[in-house]
Design a protein that fits this description.
The protein has ten helices and no strands. With 214 residues, it is an all-alpha fold. It has one domain. Helix 1 packs antiparallel against helix 2 and helix 7 runs antiparallel to helix 8. The protein is globular, with a radius of gyration of 18 Å. The two termini are 22 Å apart.
Length: 214
């Protein structure tokens, strides 16, 4: 992500290379978001943290990348992650309700996928309408990591296909991030939660200050 933002802010001769490397970051964020959703003790607190960080980061993000403290046609990645987390919540709750009221397996096979599709499309369109980073693609990738979490082949196919259809040509490099995700050992790492949250706005601010000094 930092490499990507260096390319955006400074527009170096290696711009395309830096942006290509940076494409690896979002699928990893999306994957970690789904893991966070599965293991969080409080969905409400998790969602609130993402939303607060999105709001705090927005002015810095807009000014450094777009030259204005308010930019309506672009919003930072934490808004996408917050919307993605909400999507997972809706997918989960809809599954519980459908299983409660529809006992027939045939009904489940038909109704559950249709409900999932409606939720994902509605949330994806919301991301597009609100100009969140990655828009529909972001919601699709987050949803696929969650829905196919037990089947890496389905994850690979769905994430790759949605990236090819909805992503820009440069975004195709993001598919290589699945190599790193494949080797995830399902173990909890060191607790640096606040560092990773604060790193996002702070590193953008530092890059912006360096650009001003130059």
């Amino acid at each position: 992500m930092t490499i990507d933002h260096i390319g955006v802010v400074f527009g170096t001769p290696f711009y395309n290379f830096l942006r290509a490397v940076g494409r690896l970051s979002f699928p990893i964020f999306a994957f970690l978001l789904t893991e966070g959703y599965i293991h969080t003790k409080s969905f409400g607190k998790y969602f609130l943290r993402l939303l607060v960080l999105a709001v705090i980061s927005e002015a810095i993000y807009d000014y450094v990348f777009y030259g204005s403290f308010i930019c309506m046609y672009a919003n930072n990645i934490f808004f996408t992650l917050a919307l993605g987390l909400l999507t997972l919540f809706f997918l989960d709750k809809s599954k519980m309700l459908i299983k409660k009221y529809f006992k027939d397996k045939v009904d489940l096979v038909i109704i559950l996928p249709i409900t999932y599709l409606l939720i994902i499309v509605i949330m994806g369109l919301m991301g597009e309408f609100l100009n969140f980073s990655y828009g529909m693609l972001g919601i699709l990738v987050i949803s696929f990591f969650y829905l196919f979490k037990e089947n890496f082949l389905l994850t690979l196919l769905s994430v790759s296909l949605s990236t090819l259809i909805f992503g820009e040509p440069m975004q195709c490099f993001s598919i290589f991030s699945l190599i790193f995700i494949y080797f995830y050992n399902k173990k909890l790492g060191k607790s640096c939660k606040m560092f990773f949250y604060l790193y996002y706005p702070l590193h953008i601010l530092v890059l912006g200050l360096i650009k001003m000094l130059l």
